[in-house]
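queue> holo job accepted (flavin-adenine dinucleotide)
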Amino acid sequence: MNWIDIGKLDDIPLRGARVVKTPLGCVAVFRPTETEVFATSDRCPHKGGPLSEGIVHDRKVTCPLHNWVFCLETGAAQGADEGQIETFATQIIDGRILLDSRTLQTEAAA
Amino acid sequence: MTQKLIIIGAGMASGRALEHLFEQAPDAFDVTLFNAEPRGTYNRIMLSPVLSGDKTFEEILTHTAEWYEDNNVTCRFGEKVVAIDRNAKTITADNGDVLAYDKLIIATGSTPFIIPLPGHDLDGVIAYRDLEDTNAMIALGERPDARAVVIGGGLLGLEAAAGLKARGVDVTVVHIMGHLMERQLDEAAGYLLRKALVDKGITVKCSANSKEIPGENGRVKALLLDDGTELPCDLLVMAVGIRPSIALAAEAGLATGRGIHVDDHMVTSDDSILSLGECVEHEGNIFGLVAPLYDQAKVIAKTLLDQEATFVNKDVSTMLKVTGCDLFSAGDFADGEGREDIVYRDPARGIYKRLVIQENRIIGVVMYGDTADGNWFFGLLKSGEDISNMRDTLIFGPAFQGGAPSDPMAAVAALPADAEICGCNGICKGQIVDAIQGGATTLDDVRAQTKASGSCGTCTGLVEQVLSVTLGDDFVLPASKSVCGCTEFTHEDVRRLIKSRELKSQPAVWQELGWNTPNGCHVCRPAINYYLLADWPLEYADDPQSRFVNERKHANIQKDGTYSVVPRMWGGMTNPTELRAIADAAEKFNVPTIHVTGGQRIDLLGVKGEDLPEIWSDLNKAGMVSGHAYSKGLRTVKTCVGSDHCRFGTQDSTGLGIQLEKILWGSWAPHKLKLGVSGCPRNCAEATCKDIGVVCVDSGYQIGIGGAAGMDVKETELLCQVATEAEVIEVITAVTQAYREGGKYLDRIYKWLAKVGMDWVQENVVDDLENRKALAARFELSQSIYRKDPWAEHARERADTYQPIANLTLEAAE
Ligand code: SRM
Ligand SMILES: Cc1cc2nc3c(=O)[nH]c(=O)nc-3n(C[C@H](O)[C@H](O)[C@H](O)COP(=O)(O)OP(=O)(O)OC[C@H]3O[C@@H](n4cnc5c(N)ncnc54)[C@H](O)[C@@H]3O)c2cc1C
Ligand code: SF4
Ligand code: FES
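queue> job finished
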């Protein structure tokens, strides 16, 4: 693991998201509850919608363009839609968010 | 020869360790026990019942003077150990005494964290840790009109607040997070807890950040929040967390991290020194509850006696010791993948239960209201038992007897006879039931006999439910559509219940109306958010996270992820300054497309999300504000040139349109709201196909509503004709408010009109002058909050949220 500090937990609103720019594209970092974050690719596999702009509910996000819903933990599209987004490991320490840049490189590149 | 054992700290952990030690080997050690507090071990947990007056301190003392004497413990209470010399194997007490040890136990517990706010060292700023703190709170209760503020809405803070309240103190809890006890509870349980505390008379402020502690003559006099609120108080209790007390160990060169490092046998990095309690760190974990400390106590006693024992960190559960607040929380709902929730809510009894399941095992439990099954779930959690074969009924607990999930019918059945059903005609449930028992079997019968649901019609569903509850199988309920999969209730049900039950937050709606998801979905969230802000404009704060991206970012998202920016041009009028500012902005931000919209204004398409705050701020400087081209709310007021220029114009249609737009802008509505004002019946502003349209005539103004020209094309229906501009404005704000209060989310005015009927609107908005004024006044009240430019506010206060939280491309480049 290679943890990179990307910012304060409080920089992300509850049930909101922020984006991390990486050399391999944007990563969306979601905060579905007060105390957890999930990082996924920001691109919807349908038509490229920015998932970080979707409505976050439970541990899911709804794409803002055509309402596909993705599970933030597994990255799988829900319901009838088929698709998968990448997920990246995160952890929260003392109110800071750490993103595993190693999974970021390998998975995003894969 | 007996060995010399010195123990630093007579807390709950070392107290229990001594009991185990003496049970097995009463004479193995010659024990000296230091404690900074001037007393031996007591049950610290029970300070809360002492504070609330349910217990006395004597009742919670666990080790008496006789006990120490019987076991030959040399007590040095009220004395601190100030240094450890590991080479000499001695410790130094604060009076200078140096004592030798063969074995040393560090059990210093933890220290409350004090936020270093300006003023934190004033008198009257205390933590909640020991008897002294407790006594300070009790003493406050003896003063008349005493006020206290507690910072921290966790376990300790809430127990302090409840205890102070029980002593007659006026208490406010200030919590930085959005809901109470966020580490142990989710929002729904946090909401119920808050409600119970508020019912006790405790004031609770969440999402509140403390800024400063103003004092007077060296004593605290208030707490100042960063939003400027000042909370006057005579005592300020900080209960914001604890830090393991490791200073002594660290100075002696022992390995420490967040706590004193210990192995599975509770031995530190020095073989002769052991440690246990809240001061230790074991495999990266630190501790804040006693259950694992008691396990450590068993292990440490065996280690001292050279017996084999290992400490294993187990899951812990939390309860709150506040009467009337039954909550239970255990396990993990903070990390992990592939988890599912089972949620059960019984709104009528204020019960909430949630199980977090992963790979067919319970990994987390949150319960509020009825915690009887908590330990059974906790048992399953600890044993890791596979629950797949009882999954369907699991949530009902071990004594499952076919519990019924909550449904709207039960809520109606439970209503008392004098509950009002039809607000327009003042008809109670009892009158409807009487009519049914007198022979009415259909909705029309009930309407004819009682007038219930004969007016605005929003209570129709409720009357049908009364029919169904009263007649049983003889009445077939017409199928009505629920808001979404999260609830059984329809939009109409939800709107009615939000008002009648005074639900003022989203967690309140989810809990009281029995949502079956933790926090809704993309379908219900925007609707509920709208209903709440429309019904409680002052109490409820709009939630951007429950809005579609366009409304959250105040710009329309495009298919390539860029945005369009449409500044307001009041009544379709503009001037050279505005046009120049638009041109400059278009150039500066490389806007690829500029389009003149169908709404008489200019759309800048293709602006990058990151540039939004800046382009807005440029447009603001030229006096332009958001055109809300994205909102379910007022869009445009289209006008023609009217009597100012046109040879047929009868009135100042442009001026009236501008006035209307300036009054209505910023308001949210069930759907978009477009107006048009034409200067004569030639109708160049297309006013007769707008949601609300005004056609000027010689004798005054014809106001029509319910037009549309989108997927459906509809002509407006005449609402009324009035003589003055002032009346136009009053009628239009009143009808807008009636639509805002009654409309179903995503119904435009014409759909709402089809439900309530033109007669009802005319009666309420046109004929009943008093009601018209009341509606207009409620609109104005709401506008005191919402008639503001969101662009200015975002550019000023939230510009950074439009940027990435981090940019790793830069780091890679370095
Ligand atoms: C920009 C504009 C087209 C233009 O360039 O002229 C426009 C653009 C969009 N319209 Fe429109 N409508 C525009 C005037 C209209 C008009 C004409 C008017 O207002 O005079 C109509 C018909 C009149 C009416 O509303 O009854 C119109 C009927 C619709 C509808 C159908 C509404 C309906 O109830 O049937 C939608 C879909 C919806 O709202 O659900 C829609 C939705 C949209 C959306 C928001 C589609 C979307 O969800 O992304 C388009 C956003 C484009 C963007 O990013 O800016 N637009 N749209 C016009 C902006 C007017 C303004 O200044 O605010
Ligand atoms: C109000 C309150 C309510 C609580 N409720 C619960 C509950 O419901 N459930 C639960 O599981 N837990 C609860 N806890 C937590 C629980 O009390 C602690 O986990 C437990 O007391 C920790 O035991 P300990 O022996 O590690 O530390 P402590 O009990 O704090 O003992 C450490 C002792 O060491 C002394 N000391 C420190 N440094 C020195 C030194 N240099 N020289 C000499 N002495 C020193 C201190 O004065 C202190 O007396 C509560 C705590 C409080 C304050
Ligand atoms: S008519 Fe259709 S394509 Fe054109 S702007 Fe309106 S919604 Fe978009
Ligand atoms: S781009 Fe995400 S649903 Fe279409």
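queue> The domain at 3-106 of chain A is CATH 2.102.10.10 (Rieske Iron-sulfur Protein).
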